Amino acid sequence: MKTAWTVLAVLVALAGLARSPQATRPEAAPSAALPARPVASRMNVLLITIDTLRADHLGTYGYRRKTSPRIDALAAEGAVFEQAYTYWPKTRGSFVMMMTGLRPSLNGYRKKNPGIVGFNATLASALNEAGYATAAVVDNLNVAAQHGYDKGFDRYRETWAEIEPFEKEMERSRLITEDAVRYLASPPADRPFFLWLHYVNPHAPYTPPAPFDTMFLDGDANSGPVLRPVKGYRGGVREEWEVPGKRLGYYVAQYDGEIAAVDQEVGKVLDSLRNGGAWANTMIVLSSDHGESLGEHDYYFDHGENVHDPCLRVPLIMRVPGAPPGVRSRALASTLDLVPTILNATKTALLPDLAGRSLLAQVAGQEDANGVKLFGENEHHHTTGFDGRFKTIAILDDTSAWRFSLYDRVADPGETRDVARSAPDAMRVGRRDLELAFDRWEREWVRTRAKLEGAPPPPPMSEEDCLRLKQMGYVGTPGCENY
User: Fold this and answer.
1) pTM
2) Following DSSP, what letter does each residue of 253-271 receive, concatenated?
3) How crowded is residue 312: how many other Cβ atoms within 10 Å of its Cβ?
4) Which fold does the domain 2-26+39-371 belong to in CATH?
5) What pLDDT is stored for residue 479 in this prediction?
6) DSSP states along 29-59
């Protein structure tokens, strides 16, 4: 362990030289590459992403219910980032940002190109080119290979193509686990591996299997208003998901049941990694593509409509061989940071123009010396910039003008009161940072649009796939407008 910790200390030092903490991410300097080392000596990487998972519904983040004993145990062995956020609060866009490490202005993600466009390098392609065996087992049509998410993977397994009907969500979760257990029991002997597992639970509709469907039907499950059926996601529960007479607390209990169910699956994967002998040399990263609104801002059981914390905040747990256990970091972290952190930890050359930074120093227990500001966007022209206290939100209205608001996230964690008038200095700083970001991103888009002109159009969505996505609540998915 002493040798491993020495290696990590060197990596942290190199990380600090390559990427110093940045005051604002849009002005980050180009990434610097670390010297590579022989493939055989590189650590493995296990990336586990859990769809729609709120950080504040896990025990390690202080949740009162025992939803996540296995994830909590992993957290105790690694580093927990208490303030981690997705850049884009919808699955497709989130994984484009997470896997490229770039903002849309550089990776070309937009309504006309809702996937990973071919000119992008990805985390998997960088590791694969560096000699890694790469495999993925995923469950969510939004990350289908046809949209480019398989780039760089030697094997890309889509569980929804194997298990019908589509509602059998838990069976697909078990399929992911079974595949991972086999893989980790006998990992590649001649190469390090990168394995990505994506579980769709606890995505709506919330239908946990027994015994998790009744596990949290306590007093809190009978709290809150009775939810009326509605067509969309405001003012009540989506009509096809309604359980007549049930209160808000019931649906939250079912959401928690789905977390507990997938936590059990994660535990089986971690047991296999430990028993297979690769634990000591494997970096584990656990996170989510986005959070979920559970009634905050009158928005129920969906994500992505706004850029408030319930949709943006995600768990981020990293266990790196040789790092001290039990680290809890208050540093602001983004899903954009995964690519530079993993490439840095594995001593793989960093990709150019990365928007994030390596978090290895924070994994080792160091805190940020300078202020860091994060940014986020969604498909409804909402953009946000925020630090540890103030969040500025800009919304493009029907007249193509930006409307700005400001929230004090310390005094008002629910982000319910616009303090733009009562905190004019903070509003001025936040607005300036967003306007500078808009200017930089527009300059980047000029170059990226030129690249997109030669890119092939995205493949059409089949009627079957569109109907599957509609069952999950995805209405208006690009290519599915007529279904």
Assistant:
1) 0.91
2) HHHHHHHHHHHHHHHHHHH
3) 26
4) Alkaline Phosphatase, subunit A (3.40.720)
5) 72
6) PPP-PPPP--GGGSPEEEEEEETT--GGGSG
